[in-house]
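Regression report. Comparing outputs from two consecutive submissions.

Submission 1:
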Amino acid sequence: MTKLSDLLDEDSMKDITRNTIKVGNVFRIEMNQKNGIIPKKGDISRHKFFIVLGFDSDGNIYGGVIINSNINQHVPQSVRDWQMPIKCSKYSFLEYDSFVDCSKLKSASADKFSTWKYLGFIELEDVELIIGTIKESPNETPEHLAVFGL
């Protein structure tokens, strides 16, 4: 099967990405230490659900948060305290009740868009709650949030 990214040049893909991805979109993406995810022992990356919350000024980097199935008990309390519950009864792309990690904004490069899998979207009221929560996190800075228009 031919992918759209195989048919278009890099600039065209960036334009499509900028005009398609919206705040609140949820994607399944591959993440690693470069964008704030520590893979399990023996792995170089992990697939995560990523909620888009903002964009850098060029539209090349997306700021967002990830969804975890459980709260990792091995991370500091300052991270565990900023996990927001999300119900599978409200979002069909979730298999079970999960947690949105609002402790710190993660980033993902737009050039990976062609490998992202769109899952759905978070309702506006929940997006606003997530953004409000991450703005209050002691692990985040106003400068970092500003990069993504938050």
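Submission 2:
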Amino acid sequence: MAGAGKCLLVTGPPGVGKTTLIVKVFETLKSSYPNLKIQGFYTSEVRQGGDRVGFQVVTLDGRTAPLASSTISSPESLRWPTVGKFKVDVASFESLAVPELQVREDTDLFVIDEVGKMELFSSSFFPAVLRVLESDIPVLASVPVPKVGRDIPAVARLKNHPGATIFTLSQSNRDATKELIYSQLACTPI
């Protein structure tokens, strides 16, 4: 497995394939190293009739929970924070994603997709990410490209982590980036 403290960050514009790349790397690692202990989650789009209406958080063992929606209009959702047209269900996110970031001795890799604006509405999420980084267990994570000049402070802190390597994904380098990340993570398992 990759060296302790290694933090591989995938960034790029929306829709370039950050989540797809992370899921492919995860699946390839699990196929090549079936005993590897990988914790974490990724986010996926929720679509209705071809339109994106939300996002869900998906654990690496397949459990799901809502992250954000443009179609929910319950009395409770009126208090939820918003990002664009999406209302963020912080409680749902926290109930599934944050426990996946608990550091355990037998973990070989953490996958965190993504450390972005929606996820950062959770007051317990970024402290959990920091505990993962302090554990020296390798991390594969995605972070958004800043919209206007500067990163969100939490994202900037990740990018400045001493073990961080940043991969900027584009349409033309997706396959090569996947192979490069896989090769950095796929050393002899611990």
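Expected: both submissions complete independently.
Actual: both completed, but the second showed a warning that disappeared on reload.
Relevant detail on submission 2: The chain has a mean pLDDT of 90.
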